[in-house]
Amino acid sequence: MNETSVKEALAKVIDPLLGHDIVTYRVLRTVEVQGDDVLVRLDIPTHAYPLVQRKELQGRITKALEAIGAKRVTVVADVNTAFQPAPSDKATLKGPKNVIAVAAGKGGVGKSTVAVNLALSLLKHGAKVGLLDADVFGPSIPTMLGTPEVPASASKDSKIIPALHQGLKVISVGFFVDKDEAVVWRGPMVHRLLQQFLGDVEWGDLDYLVCDLPPGTGDVQLSLSQLIPIAGAVMVTTPQEVAIVDVVKGIAMFEKVEIPILGIVENMSYYKCPACGHNDEIFSHGGGKRLAQEVGTDFFGEIPIDTRIRFGGDAGVPIVASSPDSEHTLRFMDIATKAAIKIAAGVLSKPKRSSRLAVIK
Question: Are the beta carbons of 269 and 285 closer than 8 angstroms?
Answer without folding.
Answer: yes
